[in-house]
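Researcher: Please translate sequence to structure tokens.
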Amino acid sequence: MTVLTMTPEQVLSAYWERGKLPIDPEVIAKKAGLRVEDMDPFRENEEQNAIGAYWPPEKGKPAVIEIDRDEPINRVRFTLAHELGHHFLGHNEKMHRDTTKQFNIYNFDPRESAANSFAAKILMPAQYVKVLIENKKIVDLKELAKIFRVSEVAMKIRLENLNYIKP
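Model: Translation complete:
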């Protein structure tokens, strides 16, 4: 089964109600036909640091995202969006099991960086950020992070990438 690659903007247009915040990556995954499952807490030792995994579709079965729901909610949401990135960017290797290492800003694996960027664009779309900052005059980092239900670090990086603040 081939996965149709889509940009974050295309995914939001196809699977999310315009203007509704916060964006729920689990709802998007389910609307896109992916299964979202809880990660097995008794997984093998080498996978104990895994916080998310992506299994591409095969033999007529849908793609699967596994998530560790014991993580803080903002991390769970970002991880779900990150795994959606693997799906919609066409990262169709047998399996992507992501650990906290992949979510480090100093991680330069191009596929992981692309999935992180995809996640940020899904959870904090540029046009939504612009409306909140420029039209509604909401400029407080903590308040924006709360509205988007992301960490302050993720919000800060997104604002830097959109040139609202300097790195």
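Researcher: Any highlights?
Model: The chain has a mean pLDDT of 88.
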